[in-house]
Design goal:
The chain has 9 helices and 14 strands. It is an alpha/beta fold. A hairpin with a 6-residue loop joins β1 and β2. α8 runs parallel beside α9. Keywords: Hydrolase, Metal-binding, Zinc.
Length: about 260
């Protein structure tokens, strides 16, 4: 099992997970906030033919996560999986005849060789979820776009071998920014985005006994820097800051392989 980020941030998000069993390969994308040509370019840069994707998992309806989903899915015949609430929020944008499958936010389902576990999160969207994916041996947790951790989030992420974790902002940098006051409150609120400290709190509470890889994601270009995110997370794990990866806006991060 392996995974790669094509880019992460307020200008667009996409992550690809791949599982192999013998000659069988399953590839799914989580979100697509990039334009069609751009996401095709980024996919090919990772050696992925867009038409080889077996599904696109949508977390919620904000443009940096769903902006390119339907164009990519329509061109390459890729099924889209999203919650009932998210589908209702974007119903007018779903092309006629395209496969859009509603999933329950608490019920796991399979796409090829991957088991997909959605779980609800507090965020200012219609019915937002995040995902844990496993191939029967390895578990990858993806957690971006939420205002705070919850007991259910902690339980769902416990026992993951790898985690992509939102570290959106430094509260001091956000407070000093030129953002409107209303936007500052939204970002820092319970249904907004995780600060570095809030991400560290989630990491502290969850079962980390199997965790081998950690990437900070969805960093604000104006209100955070990788060094602050790494320094908040590293002490929880007893790792060196440079051992924690960062998914940036322009390049994401290269393939990470989970293996013995």
């Amino acid at each position: 099992m392996r995974y790669t980020s094509l880019g992460s941030g307020s200008e667009g998000n996409a992550l690809v997970v791949e599982a192999r069993e013998g000659l069988s390969v399953t590839r799914v994308m989580i979100d697509c906030g990039f334009g069609l040509r751009e996401v095709e370019r980024r996919l090919l840069g990772r050696g992925i033919e867009p038409s080889s994707l077996n599904g696109i998992l949508v977390t919620h309806e904000h443009g940096d996560h769903i902006g390119g989903v339907f164009r990519l899915a329509r061109r390459h015949g890729i099924p889209v999986h999203l919650t009932t609430g998210t589908r209702a929020a974007v119903a007018a944008r779903i092309p006629e005849g395209m496969t859009a499958v509603c999933c329950d936010s608490h019920t796991a389902f399979a796409i090829g060789g991957l088991r997909v576990q959605p779980f609800p999160v507090p965020h200012d969207a219609r019915e937002p979820v995040q995902y844990v994916l496993d191939d029967g041996q390895w578990r990858l947790g993806v957690l971006t776009d939420l205002g705070e951790g919850t007991p259910h989030v902690h339980r769902t992420l416990s026992g993951c071998d790898a985690l992509v974790l939102e570290c959106n902002h430094c509260p001091d940098m956000l407070a000093r920014s030129d953002y409107p006051v209303s936007l500052k409150y939204r970002i820092a609120g319970r249904y907004g985005h995780l600060s570095n400290a809030a991400a560290a709190d989630i990491l502290r509470v969850m079962d980390r006994s199997r965790l081998k890889f950690l990437h900070a994601a969805h960093l604000s270009k104006k209100n955070n820097v990788p060094e602050l995110a790494r320094s908040a997370l590293a002490p929880i794990l007893g790792w060196q800051p440079q051992e924690i990866g960062v998914a940036d806006q322009d390049t994401g991060f290269d393939w990470v392989t989970l293996s013995q």
